[in-house]
Design goal:
The complex is a heterotrimer of chains A (328), B (386) and C (325). In chain A, 73% of the residues lie in helices and 1% in strands. In chain A, 63% of the residues are buried. With 328 residues, chain A is mainly alpha-helical. Chain A has a two-stranded antiparallel ribbon with strand order 1-2. In chain B, strand 6, helix 7 and strand 7 form a beta-alpha-beta unit. An eight-stranded mixed β-sheet of chain B has the order 2-1-3-4-5-14-13-12, with helices on both faces. Chain B is of the alpha/beta class and 386 residues long. Chain B has two domains: 160 residues, Response regulator (Rossmann fold), CATH 3.40.50; 154 residues, 3-Layer(aba) Sandwich (Rossmann fold), CATH 3.40.50. Chain B contains twelve helices and 15 strands. Chain C has 13 helices and four strands. In chain C, the strands form two sheets. Chain C has a two-stranded antiparallel sheet with strand order 1-4. A two-stranded antiparallel sheet of chain C has the order 2-3. In chain C, a hairpin with a 2-residue loop joins strand 2 and strand 3. Chain C is globular, with a radius of gyration of 20 Å. Classes of the chains: A mainly alpha (328), B alpha/beta (386), C mainly alpha (325). Chains in contact: A-B, A-C, B-C. Chains A and B meet through helix 2, helix 3, helix 4, helix 5 and strand 2 of A and helix 2, helix 3, helix 9, helix 10 and helix 11 of B.
Chain lengths: 328, 386, 325
């Protein structure tokens, strides 16, 4: 329980840090708070967060998914093909979630059935996802109909807030409740902390992990819809590289990649910080060339701060690196 | 437990078989999940269906193999070039190989890797649009050393590493086309010598030879009287280099849209220099929550008409015109040049080329220019099909 | 017994390699020329192969380094800029120093601050990428005399970097197999706590191997810059995953404690053959990616099968003798 308290403070620090940046932006670059910028920031925050929640669940079980970006590319292209036929938004969303879930379940099966470590298994599937895409479509799918871009162009709440934010809100609230109250989520923590122990206490570890991947896949699918429908053209590399951003959001939020600890709330703040770095830098008049460096520095600093607290608390006995190994 | 092992072995066996099948039958179109549904969309692109990998070097006229390397695959612009190239190849009865890096890996290394394979195979001509003009030079020189003719198209490489450059447009003409398109629109919206307009550029990767040349030409033109009411306030922040990754281009364009509007600290005109960022500008304007007033801002840029159609036809979108040249003709001309260089009809020093359906094109200084910029707007955008 | 199984796995890899090599050679006669094999196939893989060597050490200790590609690019870039501003010597020093500092940062955070290797190197990956982008403003940095020499010179008809690779591969094989240092790495990978209590300075060893990895990245930076004559900030993208693919393909367990250098070297050869061979066969780049992914999966599965059986044998030896067959 003492540990739980420690992680609460991680989120607290993060929130303070975020508030400090927001305040700083208010003083240094008022323009940052223009409606348009805020809304486009919220839009990218939405798709980062939705996927990051999925990634968070996976990381809780002490696994990882580096194929998320490639998977999103596959889903984007698939729904673009459907959207070309004029299938309405609801159909696209359903299709995206199903395709995402199926592909991600494959990852889960690979990992559990064949006992391949998650990072390597998803590394391999990344290459397959990436390779399949350009084969099935020659170039990009473009000139997509208005029904396809409905989410980005027309769906605005009160005429201002993009609907993607609403989707994100629903997913986030659901995830918070889910992690807090469901027995399934408790199993995730158990598996992440000690998968052998969890197995011996009657949890079907493999099955739970596969389901986690399935859920995460559906969430990746939702993100893919937001990303794909941003314009009238969908290319084969829409999601490439995003997986690292998702993982970074989770890590920044204080979740240990060794699994077993971490909260969705932290991920929410982490995703928000990552989403605002690029526009904030642009509004501050700094060349966007520095945005990646700032991103890296922020993650590194927050992780070091987190680790420093951790070391003070628990010397010797339990270091995360060791736990990672025993859990894997 | 024993059963499990057997199962695992079977999986291994099947996968091994599958892999061998993939690697040795060449590329039989892999069907997978929802992706196969993209078939219909693929056919919407003007594509004849003769995938390059299926085209085995066959005995054809003079057995000439031309290998074409775009900056990256999977975007309207180069697709259109490929269509034109294929047309020329069919006409001349030669083999055309076409391969390139994927969009998110449009780097010099990837291009060099592909080139080295072609050099080893001994193709006759290489047509390339380099991502980095200087960095690719040693590899192209190596190809020339192996007796392969080298033609650059779309973007040039170092002059001593290619035999001919098929240029779509001179840098001055491109810059003038872009600025004209923007100026026309801005003037119609009340800007002029007594009311200056801040402009922002969305470039590509930063090392691209064309975009660098166009940027410089734009800078020069902005200094002249005719265009001096358009100003780039801060080169650090007002010239964007989002690269070639679609998602990144979208997000940087969204940031830019947020800065559009009226006033000294806002930006009044956005000009996109890559065929990816122009449609992104249109899309991001469309999805912006509080749209900047279209009556005070202007957007234009380079892109294929197909990619801009919807935005141009939408009267509320400030993206009213696009600038381009005929991409299909560019691919066609490149293959014609390559073929004639290979069979000796022309030499690099030739003064002109008889390029099939395009008629005679002049060559100066080993550079063959296709033509002038083409500005399209709502009145004629439907006439194009690429 | 364990020895025997490892032997079979390496042998299986060798067979896969031989089959691929022969298959491609039959399909594409252009492949089987001395010039292509040495100057294209082997020369192109050297960068990945070289970084795979220290990466094997890191993975054996149960760690990972995702920042290798970006360390390499940052080192090449700062070196190139120093060489352009001052002299070649400055360029060389700056490159090596950058590599060492990048590795040191990773090593200290992982060993001393006890942050998991994946998180640390993920963050430093962004940091190094961003710094490379920031200092270069997205422009290319060009090669200088020394790096050109490293990237393009030949010695006795074989490119210099291949000689270097062979030398390094030998050193690393000996280091891992024949020295106490190498055995300590396995020990850390299998059980870091036990190793620590056995009196091994695990922290020092971890820092050493990450710095070593950074230094090798710096060395590779010369070759890379020389071979491509220029480098851009995003040149290291996916490099980390390629290196890890090679190491894992070679049978090193990502969980640590298991693996050897021979496997990594054969893994390097397989990827080299695939990369260059498929290009010669005119198979589009996309299919090549699929094939690489498939080969990795096959290797993983066959390894899982072999490993599973080996483990079962050790654990359930008494009750279940039938698992042997």
């Amino acid at each position: 329980m003492g540990k739980k308290k420690g992680f609460l403070t991680t989120e607290f620090y993060l929130a303070v840090f975020l508030a400090a940046i927001l305040l700083f932006m208010a003083v240094a670059a008022r323009e940052f708070y223009s409606i348009n910028n805020l809304m486009s920031l919220l839009n990218s925050f939405s798709y980062i967060l939705i996927s990051a929640i999925g990634m968070n669940l996976i990381i809780l079980t002490s696994n990882i998914d580096v194929s998320a970006g490639a998977l999103i590319s596959v889903v984007c292209l698939s729904i673009a093909a459907l959207g070309k036929q004029g299938i309405p938004f609801a159909g696209l969303m359903a299709a995206a979630m199903v395709i995402g879930a199926v592909l991600s379940t494959l990852n889960g099966l690979f990992i559990t059935r064949l006992k391949i470590p998650a990072i390597v298994a998803t590394l391999a599937t990344t290459q397959i996802f990436q390779g399949v895409l350009p084969l099935t479509v020659d170039g990009s799918i473009y000139d997509l109909p208005a029904s396809f871009t409905w989410l980005a162009f027309d769906a605005k709440i009160f005429g201002i807030v993009p609907a993607s934010v609403l989707i994100c809100l629903i997913v986030t609230v659901a995830a918070l409740l889910f992690v807090k109250y469901s027995r399934f989520a408790r199993k995730l923590y158990a598996i992440g902390n000690n998968s052998n122990g969890a197995r011996l206490s009657g949890i079907r570890v493999d099955r739970t992990v596969v389901w986690t991947y399935t859920i995460a896949g559906a969430l990746f699918g939702i993100s893919a819809v937001i990303i794909a429908t941003a314009g009238q053209r969908v290319t084969t590399t829409m999601g490439s590289g995003l997986e690292m951003t998702f993982i970074a959001a989770v890590v920044l939020g204080g979740t240990n990649t060794a699994g077993g600890s971490g909260k969705i709330l932290g991920t929410v703040i982490g995703a928000f910080i990552l989403a605002m770095i690029a526009p904030a830098i642009n509004y501050l008049g700094i060349s966007p060339d520095w945005s990646d460096a700032v991103k890296g520095a922020i993650i590194l600093i927050s992780v070091v701060v987190g680790a420093a607290k951790y070391i003070k608390k628990k010397r010797v006995i339990d270091d995360p690196a060791a736990r990672e190994r025993s859990a894997a | 437990m024993k059963k499990r092992n057997l199962l695992q072995k079977m999986v291994v066996g099947t996968l091994a078989g599958a892999m061998l099948a993939v690697s040795f039958t060449g590329c039989s179109k892999t069907e997978s999940g929802g992706a196969s549904k993209t078939e219909s969309a693929a056919s919407a692109a003007p594509e004849t269906g003769s995938s390059t990998s299926e085209a085995k070097p066959a005995a054809s006229s003079g057995d000439i193999t031309v290998a074409m390397l775009p900056k990256f695959k999977g975007e309207n612009y180069f697709d259109a070039c490929k269509t034109g190239a294929q047309e020329a190849a069919d006409e001349l009865g030669i083999t055309l190989l076409y391969d390139g890096p994927s969009q998110d890996q449009a780097t010099n290394q990837k291009q060099v890797d592909i080139l080295e394979g072609w050099i080893a195979q001994g193709v006759n001509v290489i047509i390339v649009s380099p991502n980095d003009p200087t960095a690719i030079a040693p590899t192209l020189q190596k190809a020339q050393g192996a007796g392969i003719k080298v033609v650059t198209f779309d973007a040039d490489a170092q002059a001593d590493s290619r035999d001919m450059f098929v240029n779509q447009i001179s840098a001055d003409a491109a810059a003038k086309g872009l600025l004209d398109a923007a100026a026309q629109d801005l003037k119609a919206k009340g800007y002029g010598d007594d009311k200056t307009a801040n402009i922002a550029l969305v470039s590509g990767s930063g090392t691209d030879a064309n975009q660098t040349a166009w940027e410089n030409a734009i800078d020069e033109l902005l200094a002249t009287d005719e265009y001096k009411f358009m100003i780039i306030q801060n080169k650090e922040t007002d010239v964007y280099y989002p690269g070639t990754d679609e998602t990144k281009v979208n997000s940087e364009c969204a940031t830019l849209i947020g800065r559009l509007g009226e006033g000294e600290d806002k930006i009044q005109a956005a000009i996109a220099l890559s065929s990816m960022s122009t449609p992104a500008l249109g899309a991001q304007y469309q999805s912006a929550s509080s749209k900047p007033d279209a009556n005070v801002i202007s957007m234009t840029g380079l892109a294929t008409p197909n990619a801009l159609k919807t935005y141009i036809k939408d009267e509320e979108n400030p993206l009213t015109s696009g600038v381009l040249w005929n991409c299909m003709d560019l691919g066609y001309l490149a293959v014609q040049t390559a073929y004639q260089l290979a069979n000796g009809t022309i030499t690099p020093d030739a003064a002109s080329i008889d390029a099939g359906r395009l008629g005679t094109k002049e060559i100066t200084n080993q550079e063959c220019v296709l033509g002038d910029a083409l500005i399209f707007d709502a009145s004629n955008v439907d006439e194009f099909n690429y | 017994m364990k020895e025997k199984f490892k032997f079979t796995f390496n042998l299986a890899l060798l067979v896969i390699w031989a089959v691929l090599f022969a298959g491609i050679a039959v399909k594409a006669p252009g492949f089987l020329s001395y010039n292509y094999i040495v100057n294209v196939m082997l020369r192109n893989i050297v960068e990945i192969g070289m970084v795979a060597l220290p990466m094997t050490l890191i993975i054996i200790t149960g760690g990972i380094d995702l920042s290798v590609g970006n360390t390499m690019v940052l080192a090449a870039m700062l070196g190139g800029m120093a060489a352009a501003k001052a002299s070649d010597i400055a360029g060389v020093l700056v490159t090596l120093l950058t590599g060492a500092v990048c590795g040191l940062l990773n090593g200290v955070l992982i060993a001393k601050a006890k942050i998991s290797a994946m998180v640390t190197t993920l963050a430093s990956m962004f940091l190094y990428l961003g710094m490379a982008r920031g200092v270069s403003h997205g422009d290319s940095v060009y090669s200088y005399t020394f790096s050109e020499y490293m990237g393009t010179m030949s010695f006795l008809g074989i490119p210099l970097q291949i000689w270097l690779y062979v030398l390094l591969a030998l050193c690393f094989t000996v280091l891992l197999k024949k020295t106490a240092f190498g055995r300590k790495l396995y020990s850390i990978g299998l059980n870091p706590h036990a190793t620590k209590y056995a009196g091994v300075n695990t922290e020092k060893i971890l820092v050493i191997i990450y710095v070593l990895c950074g230094m090798i990245c710096a060395l590779v930076a010369f070759i890379f810059l020389g071979r491509f004559t220029s480098v851009k900030y995003d040149a290291g993208t996916n490099f980390n995953l390629k290196v890890i693919t090679v190491v894992v393909l070679g049978g090193t367990s990502i969980n640590g404690g298991i693996g050897d250098m021979k496997g990594t070297i054969i893994g390097t050869l397989i990827i080299a053959t695939l990369n260059s061979g498929l290009t010669v066969l005119n198979i589009p780049i996309d299919v090549q990616t699929i094939v690489q992914g498939a080969v990795l999966i096959i290797a993983l599965i066959s390894y899982a099968v072999v490993n599973n059986r080996a483990r079962k044998k050790r654990i359930i030896k008494v009750e279940a003798p039938d698992a042997l067959s």
